[in-house]
Design brief:
This protein is of the alpha/beta class. It has four domains: 148 residues, DNA polymerase beta, N-terminal domain-like (DNA polymerase, domain 1, Orthogonal Bundle), CATH 1.10.150.110; 77 residues, Beta Polymerase, domain 2, CATH 3.30.460.10; 74 residues, Beta Polymerase, domain 3, CATH 3.30.210; 229 residues, Alpha-Beta Barrel (TIM Barrel), CATH 3.20.20. Helix content is 44%, strand content 14%. The protein has 24 helices and 17 strands. The strands form four sheets. A seven-stranded parallel beta sheet has the order 11-12-13-14-15-16-17. It is globular. The mean pLDDT is 93. The protein binds one DNA strand through helix 2, helix 4, helix 7, helix 9 and strand 5.
Length: 570
DNA sequence: GCCGTTTTCGGCCCGACTGTTTTCAGTCG
C-alpha cells in the first residue's frame, strides 16, 4: 500500500507549514494524513476507480490535497513538498519523535545549529550546545537526551492483549488509594485498540493532589516526565509510559469522554457542541456559565442529541452520524461468548492435553470448545494425518466422559495447500463437527492467486470456518495479499464463517474487515487459537476486536449454545 | 486547506504542564 508513505509526506507537509507559522493549513494536512493512514483501500485503487473526485471523498481531503495526491501517484513527487523540504532539509519524523521537540524547535535547531537528524541532535545536546539557543535551557537539553536514550531502545506500541494484564494490575493499585472514588482506563486502552502507545488512567476524586503524590510513589515508576495538581506523565520500569489524570466525580462523564478520545472523535463532538453555541471540555458541556451535562457519558452524549457511543468505535468517523440518528448497532457484549472454536492441544503444537484444555475452558465458564489441532502438511507441528485425526476423535470421546459440564467438539485446523486443496481427505473431514481451514504457507502468492486459493477452500462443503483469514502477525508479519471483498462475497455465497482470531498478535480479521463482513451478512466466530490453558482469557480481546468492527451478538456464531451454533454451519 | 442542520466565507477542540522568562509560546494528549 502506498497509503503509509503518502500519509507520512502529508504529515511532514503539516509540520513544515507549522514551521513557517501557517495557522490552519497544518491542521488540514494533519487531518488528511490521518484519514489516508486509516483507509482500508489503497489510495492508488481509489484513484484508479474514481479519479480525483474519489480522492476528494476522503475525509479532510479537498481539491488542493487531492491534486497533490494525484501528483504523487503520477510522478512520485509533490512539488510543493519538495520545495519546502529544500528550504528545511531535516528528518522530520526522526526529530519530532523526540519527546518535547515540535515544529518550532526543529526549525530553530536547524537554523541555529544546522541539525538535521536525531544523531546530530544527540551530539549537539551532549556537547552542551543547545542551551546557547534562545528559548532553550539546561532542562530542555537534559530532556532531549533522556528521550533519545529511550528511543534508542526502540520501544514501539504494545499489543493490547499482552500489555493488558499489567494495565489491569496498575488500575487495581490505583483504585486502592484511599482518596480514589473510582478509576478507569482511558485513551486507546479504553478504546481497546489493537496496539497501545501508553497506559492512560483517569481517576475520580476531590483530592487530586494527594492522589498524584501517592501515585508518583509507586515503586514501578522509573521516571517522571511531568507532574501537576491534576495530571502526571511517567515512565514505568517495564519501559512503557503511563498517564494519570484526576478529575472531580462531578465531571466524570465529560472527563471520561475527553480522556478516552479518540482525538478525532473529540474534535468532532466538540465542534458539534460549538455549532449549538456551547462548549464541551473536560469539566462538562456548557452554555456560557451554565452547566448542561457532565456527570455521565450518557448524559453528555444525550444533550448533544445522540445516544451513548461505545469507546471501541470512537474513531471520529461515521459513529457520530449513526449516534445522532440513534442507529448504532447493539455491539456484542463481553459476556456473550459461549464457546471457543479454535483450540490446539499437545496432539500437535499446544502445551496441554485435551483434558487440561477442556478443564481450563470449563473453569472460565465456557459451555463448549472445539479441538482443532493442525494437520499433516504442517509437519513442524506434528500435524495429524487422517488416521491421527480418527485417533484424536476417539480420545476426545474418552475425555468427554471424564470432563462433564463442557461439550468438547471435534475439529481440525486443516491446511490449505498452494492450489486451494486441503491436506485431509473429504471422507475424514465429514466426520468432524467443525473444519477450520487456514493458510500456513506460500504467503507470497499474487493477490489473485491467494484469493482464488482461499475461495477454492471455501467451496469445499466440509470447510466451515476460515481461521485467521489474512495471516498477519502484528509487528512481525504483514497480511498476505488478498482481495477481501472477493473473499467475503465467497464466504457469503458458500456460507463459510470468517474467524476473528483473538490471539493478541493476530487479531485477525481486523476491525475494518469485520465491519465489511457484518455489512455483507457474513457470519463470524471469535476464537482464541489457544495453545495453552492460559490463552482462553484472550477471548476478551477478540470480542473487543469484534466490537471495533461494529459486530453484534447475532453476527458471531459462538454466542449461541453449541447445538444451535452447529446448525449455522454448512 | 477544508468544510457546511447558522453552506461558498469565516472559522478551525480544549486545557494542563513545562521551561524559560517575568507573561507566555510550545508541546502534548
Amino acid at each position: 500500500m502506498v497509503n503509509h508513505n503518502l500519509a507520512k509526506i502529508l504529515r511532514e507537509i503539516s509540520v513544515l507549514l507549522e514551521m513557517k507559522g501557517e495557522d490552519f493549513k497544518p491542521q488540514a494536512y494533519e487531518k488528511a494524513a490521518h484519514s489516508v493512514e486509516m483507509l482500508e483501500r489503497d489510495v492508488r485503487e481509489i484513484y484508479k476507480d474514481g479519479s480525483i473526485k474519489a480522492l476528494e471523498d476522503i475525509p479532510g481531503v479537498g481539491k488542493g490535497i487531492a491534486e497533490r495526491i494525484e501528483e504523487y501517484l503520477k510522478t512520485h513527487h509533490i512539488k510543493d513538498y519538495d520545495k519546502l523540504k529544500k528550504q528545511i532539509p531535516v528528518k522530520i519524523d526522526e526529530l519530532s519523535s523526540v519527546e518535547g521537540v515540535g515544529s518550532k524547535m526543529i526549525l530553530r535547531l536547524y537554523k541555529e545549529l544546522g541539525i538535521k537528524t536525531r544523531a546530530q541532535l544527540e551530539k549537539a545536546a551532549k556537547a552542551g550546545k543547545l542551551k546557547n539557543i534562545e528559548g532553550f535551557g539546561k532542562k530542555t537539553e537534559e530532556n532531549i537526551l533522556r528521550s533519545i536514550e529511550f528511543l534508542k531502545k526502540e520501544h514501539g506500541r504494545s499489543i493490547l492483549g499482552f500489555i493488558m494484564p499489567q494495565a489491569k494490575d496498575l488500575l487495581e493499585k490505583i483504585k486502592k488509594i484511599p482518596e480514589v472514588k473510582s478509576a478507569e482506563f482511558a485513551g486507546s486502552l479504553r478504546r481497546r485498540r489493537e496496539t497501545i502507545g501508553d497506559l492512560d488512567f483517569i481517576v475520580f476524586s476531590d483530592k487530586p493532589a494527594e492522589i498524584i503524590k501517592k501515585f508518583l510513589n509507586f515503586p514501578e515508576i522509573e521516571h517522571i516526565y511531568s507532574k501537576g495538581e491534576q495530571k502526571a506523565l511517567v515512565r514505568l520500569n517495564s519501559d512503557i509510559d503511563a498517564d494519570i489524570s484526576v478529575v472531580s466525580p462531578k465531571s466524570l462523564g465529560s472527563a471520561l469522554i475527553a480522556w478516552t478520545g479518540s482525538k478525532q472523535h473529540n474534535i468532532a463532538i466538540r465542534t458539534l457542541a460549538e455549532k449549538k453555541g456551547w462548549l464541551l471540555n473536560d469539566y462538562g458541556l456548557w452554555n456560557g456559565k451554565k452547566l448542561l451535562a457532565s456527570k455521565t457519558e450518557e448524559e453528555v452524549y444525550k444533550k448533544l442529541g445522540m445516544e451513548w457511543i461505545p469507546p471501541e468505535i470512537r474513531n471520529g468517523t461515521d459513529e457520530i452520524n449513526a449516534a445522532l440518528k440513534n442507529k448504532l448497532p447493539e455491539l456484542i457484549g463481553y459476556d456473550d461468548l459461549k464457546g471457543d472454536l479454535q483450540v490446539q492441544t499437545d496432539w500437535t503444537d499446544g502445551d496441554h492435553s485435551i483434558k487440561e484444555m477442556a478443564e481450563a475452558a470449563k473453569k472460565l465458564g465456557l459451555e463448549y470448545i472445539c479441538i482443532t489441532d493442525h494437520t499433516k502438511s504442517l509437519a513442524m507441528t506434528g500435524g495429524n494425518d487422517e488416521k491421527g485425526l480418527l485417533k484424536e476423535m476417539a480420545e476426545i470421546d474418552k475425555v468427554q466422559k471424564q470432563v462433564p459440564g463442557i461439550k468438547i467438539l471435534k475439529g481440525a485446523e486443516v491446511n490449505i495447500m498452494k492450489d486451494g486443496s486441503l491436506d485431509i481427505d473429504d471422507e475424514t473431514l465429514t466426520k468432524l463437527d467443525i473444519v477450520g481451514a487456514a493458510v500456513h504457507s506460500h504467503f507470497n502468492l499474487s493477490e489473485k492467486e491467494q484469493t482464488e486459493r482461499i475461495i477454492k477452500a471455501m467451496e469445499n462443503p466440509n470447510v466451515d470456518i476460515i481461521f485467521h483469514p489474512t495471516g498477519r502477525i502484528i509487528q512481525r508479519r504483514d497480511a498476505y495479499k488478498v482481495d477481501m471483498d472477493a473473499l467475503l462475497k465467497a464466504a457469503k455465497r458458500t456460507k463459510t464463517v470468517m474467524e476473528i482470531d483473538a490471539y493478541p498478535d493476530r487479531s485477525d480479521l481486523k476491525d475494518e474487515y469485520i465491519r465489511k463482513a457484518v455489512e455483507m451478512g457474513v457470519k463470524l466466530s471469535i476464537d482464541t487459537d489457544a495453545h495453552s490453558i492460559h490463552h482462553f482469557q484472550y477471548l476478551e480481546y477478540g470480542i473487543a476486536q469484534a466490537r471495533r468492527g461494529w459486530a453484534t451478538r447475532d453476527d458471531v456464531i459462538n454466542t449461541r449454545g453449541w447445538k444451535e451454533m452447529l446448525k449455522l454451519l454448512k
